[in-house]
Design a protein that fits this description.
Elements lengths: L1 H21 L4 H30 L5 E7 L7 E5 L9 E5 L6 E9 L6 E2 L2
Antiparallel strand pairs: 1-2, 1-4, 3-4, 4-5
């Protein structure tokens, strides 16, 4: 889909450009070729940019906050989000401080500002 729409966009831009710049041998047809060429070029450009935008948008970086279940232990860790992570999911990973069980406390999208919970 992406490649086809890009190819179509290039074809439209080139075809529209030829119509726009060369026009017609008929003076009365020139103005029609001019606008038609312009419209076709605009369509081609919108196809090209629409395809490009989709590919440029990666998933926003997400982090998972995990904390030790032991109330006397304050161990907390932020790690990269992994598939299947959700809030209050208990993990098999042991706390490196007290060997207690660990639970996911939050899942956050990484932003410039303070983290916003996504779930
Ligand atoms: Zn702990």
């Amino acid at each position: 889909m992406g490649v086809i729409s890009k190819l179509l966009g290039i074809v439209l831009v080139v075809g529209g450009g030829i119509m726009f710049f060369l026009g017609s041998s008929d003076q009365n047809m020139n103005i029609i070729y001019y606008f038609l060429g312009l419209t076709i070029m605009a369509m081609g450009f919108s196809l090209l940019t629409a395809g490009g935008k989709k590919e440029e948008k990666p998933n926003p970086p997400t982090v998972t906050e995990i904390a030790c279940d032991n109330p006397e232990c304050t161990f907390k860790e932020i790690r990269d989000f992994q598939k299947g992570d959700f809030i209050l999911k208990s993990l098999e990973t042991k706390c490196p401080k007290c060997q207690g069980s660990m639970t996911i406390q939050g899942v956050y999208m990484v932003r410039e500002e303070e983290p916003v919970p996504t779930v």
